[in-house]
């Protein structure tokens, strides 16, 4: 139930509704609180455990940082190594790196020239490799194995057809010979 308290005195004041709560609403609220206490209590326990773990981790990290800080103080400072210049101070002269001896490049170049053979390069150069290729050369290359297989099948089929024709022609030749022999005999007899 909402009760209106009346017009606001100032424009900045808000109209605040007053709620009257009956016994039925209070009793239902108490029941719902009893049901919700268990999950909320469980969640609160989980939150406390999580906070305790975070505190333990924080203390562990702070302990490690303190140990690292003490190690830095105890460890000696690294000595500088002067590579690109000679220090003027006499104490730092022995910290400078010794000058490196130049490498004999001529022997490396001679070895690499001996390893690479010029004749091999000339043999590898072929006019077919230098000439520009047709636009469909890659398609032909990919189809070549399939065409080779088909070519073999085609040759077998042609051979079978030729054998079949030879058999038919031999049968025809035999029949022609048989039929021609009696004629020849009659022709010979007439002469």
Brief summary of the model shown:
With 191 residues, the chain is mainly alpha-helical. It is built from six helices and two strands; from the N terminus they run ββαααααα.
Written account of the structure:
With 191 residues, the protein is mostly helical. 69% of the residues lie in helices and 2% in strands. It has 6 helices and 2 strands, in the order E-E-H-H-H-H-H-H. It has helices spanning 23-74, 90-93, 105-115, 118-124, 127-130, 137-190; strands at residues 2-3, 18-19. The protein has a two-stranded antiparallel sheet. It is elongated, with a radius of gyration of 54 Å. The model is unreliable at 10-14, 17-23 and 30-37 (pLDDT under 50). Residues 39-49 have a biased composition (Basic and acidic residues). InterPro entries: mRNA_splic_Cwf18-like (IPR013169). It comes from Orchesella cincta (Springtail).
User: Helix- and strand-based class?
Assistant: mainly alpha
> Tell me about the biggest sheet?
2 strands, antiparallel
Distance between the termini: 148 Å
User: Strand tally, please?
Assistant: 2
Low-pLDDT regions: 10-14, 17-23, 30-37
| pLDDT averaged residue by residue | 73
- Helix-strand topology string: EEHHHHHH
Percent of residues in β-strands: under 5%
Helical fraction equals 55-70%
Q: For the largest beta sheet, what order do the strands appear in spatially?
A: 1-2
Number of helices: 6
Radius of gyration: 54 Å
Principal-axes geometry comes out as elongated
Biased composition (Basic and acidic residues): 39-49
Region (Disordered): 26-52
Protein name: Coiled-coil domain-containing protein 12
Pfam family, one: cwf18
């Amino acid at each position: 139930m909402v009760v209106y308290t009346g017009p606001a005195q100032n424009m900045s004041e808000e109209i605040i509704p007053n709620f009257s709560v009956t016994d039925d609403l209070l009793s239902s609220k108490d029941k719902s609180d009893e049901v919700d206490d268990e999950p909320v209590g469980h969640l609160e326990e989980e939150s406390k455990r999580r906070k305790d773990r975070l505190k333990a981790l924080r203390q562990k990290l702070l302990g490690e940082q303190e140990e690292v800080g003490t190690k830095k103080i105890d460890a000696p400072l690294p000595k500088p190594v002067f590579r690109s210049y000679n220090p003027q101070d006499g104490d730092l002269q022995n910290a400078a790196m010794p000058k490196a001896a130049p490498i004999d490049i001529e022997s490396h170049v001679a070895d690499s020239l001996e390893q690479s053979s010029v004749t091999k390069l000339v043999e590898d150069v072929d006019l077919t490799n230098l000439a520009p290729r047709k636009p469909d050369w890659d398609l032909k290359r990919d189809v070549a194995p399939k065409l080779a297989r088909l070519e073999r099948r085609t040759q077998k089929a042609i051979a079978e057809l030729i054998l079949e024709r030879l058999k038919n022609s031999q049968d025809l030749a035999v029949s022609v010979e048989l039929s021609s022999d009696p004629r020849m005999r009659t022709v010979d007899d007439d002469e």
